[in-house]
Automatic annotation (TrEMBL):
<keyword id="KW-0472">Membrane</keyword>
<keyword id="KW-0812">Transmembrane</keyword>
<feature type="transmembrane region" description="Helical">
    <location>
        <begin position="223"/>
        <end position="244"/>
    </location>
</feature>
<feature type="transmembrane region" description="Helical">
    <location>
        <begin position="20"/>
        <end position="44"/>
    </location>
</feature>
<feature type="transmembrane region" description="Helical">
    <location>
        <begin position="250"/>
        <end position="267"/>
    </location>
</feature>
<feature type="transmembrane region" description="Helical">
    <location>
        <begin position="134"/>
        <end position="153"/>
    </location>
</feature>
<dbReference type="GO" id="GO:0005886">
    <property type="term" value="C:plasma membrane"/>
</dbReference>
<feature type="transmembrane region" description="Helical">
    <location>
        <begin position="101"/>
        <end position="122"/>
    </location>
</feature>
<feature type="transmembrane region" description="Helical">
    <location>
        <begin position="56"/>
        <end position="89"/>
    </location>
</feature>
<keyword id="KW-1003">Cell membrane</keyword>
<keyword id="KW-1133">Transmembrane helix</keyword>
<feature type="transmembrane region" description="Helical">
    <location>
        <begin position="302"/>
        <end position="322"/>
    </location>
</feature>
<feature type="transmembrane region" description="Helical">
    <location>
        <begin position="279"/>
        <end position="296"/>
    </location>
</feature>
<feature type="transmembrane region" description="Helical">
    <location>
        <begin position="173"/>
        <end position="195"/>
    </location>
</feature>
<keyword id="KW-0762">Sugar transport</keyword>
<dbReference type="InterPro" id="IPR001851">
    <property type="entry name" value="ABC_transp_permease"/>
</dbReference>
<keyword id="KW-0813">Transport</keyword>
Length: 330
């Protein structure tokens, strides 16, 4: 681990150089096939608006992978968090005025983050103290949260939010989506936590060898709880951006994002077995995935076929990572 600048930029890192070259090659290829429309303002704007929610969700996945775990409940956490915010926004903001109008919006955001934190803590306690495997614990939590979301709303969509909330998902500042600023600030913060704090060093050590980390004096159970709490809070932030962009919340939004969050983290250089990963690599991987997704979309490739291609890429990258780990090159 080389500090937060290295985590963010990845300067000199082979994975990031390969990603940059692949992005350039993909843009050139789609530009030749699709034509000028691929580089149009509308296409670039669409990619810029889609990236923040997916990027923050990918950060939520990355921190758990870095510790040697996984969080399959990130999407379910985000959806239940968004529904909690939407319930307050649609139930109490209309009809309120002045300070109460502002206070209810703050209360809505606080309610959403409280739900996200509770989900993260539940995962952390299950994994750290009850020693449930991360896959089983988060799979169970995902099912629980999704069931609650559908049961409480009967699958209905909650919509109609005030302008300040909508600005986070659809507003721009100097031509750049507001959500993109939020994602950039979050990425820098996560990079600092992972690269410049004792918590970040402990996460990496646990991901490399949990037993050795425990013998070195690290309270591994407390660190794992913090990892999943951080992941839950990041999912709550993604929920705010996603809800604002769609101007609605539903129990089934963003389900296809789960595979992409894992793919973005692993493609960006995060070791799926834990112990290594870079925020800068994840950001570049997201750019690459957005470029490829936009290209396929403009070529009218079926979204289901695109998902299948993501699956093939994920299998190839994880297989390669496992082989490199066995050979001792990671």
């Amino acid at each position: 681990m080389t500090g937060w600048r290295g985590l963010l930029s990845g300067a000199g890192d082979g994975t990031n150089r390969a990603l940059l070259a692949t992005i350039a090659a993909a843009m050139l290829a789609f530009g030749l096939v699709v034509g000028d429309g691929f580089f149009s303002f509308a296409a670039m704007r669409s990619m810029a608006f889609q990236m923040p929610e997916l990027g923050i969700l990918s950060l939520a996945m990355m921190v758990t992978l870095l510790s040697g775990g996984i969080n399959l409940a990130v999407i379910a956490t985000a959806n239940l968090s968004a529904l909690a915010m939407a319930w307050v926004l649609t139930g109490f903001v209309p009809g309120s005025e002045g300070p109460a109008w502002v206070a209810w919006q703050g209360a809505a955001i606080a309610a959403g983050f409280a739900v996200a934190a509770a989900a993260g803590l539940l995962n952390g306690v299950l994994i750290a103290y009850l020693r449930v495997s991360p896959i089983l614990a988060t799979l169970g939590t995902m099912t629980l949260l999704k069931g609650l979301a559908i049961g409480l709303t009967r699958g209905e969509v909650l919509s109609g939010f005030p302008e300040p909330i909508l600005y986070l998902g659809n507003g721009t500042l100097l031509g750049v989506p507001a959500g993109l600023y939020l994602f950039a600030a979050t990425a820098v913060l996560v990079a600092i936590i992972l690269g410049r704090t004792p918590l970040g060093a402990a996460i990496v050590m646990i991901g490399s060898n949990e037993k050795a980390a425990r013998f070195s004096g690290i309270d591994t159970r407390a660190v794992i709880v913090r990892v999943y709490l951080m992941s839950g809070l990041l999912a709550g932030l993604a929920a705010l951006v996603m809800m604002a962009r769609f101007n609605s919340a539903n129990a089934a939004y963003g389900e296809s994002y789960l595979l992409v969050t894992i793919l973005a983290a692993v493609l960006g250089g995060t070791n799926p077995m834990g112990g290594a990963g870079r925020v800068g690599g994840l950001v570049l991987a997201l750019v690459l995935l957005q470029v490829v997704s936009s290209g396929f979309n403009q070529l009218d490739v079926s979204p289901f076929l695109t998902l299948a291609i993501w699956g093939v890429i994920l299998l190839a990258v994880t297989g390669l990572a496992a082989r490199r780990a066995r050979e001792g090159t990671v």
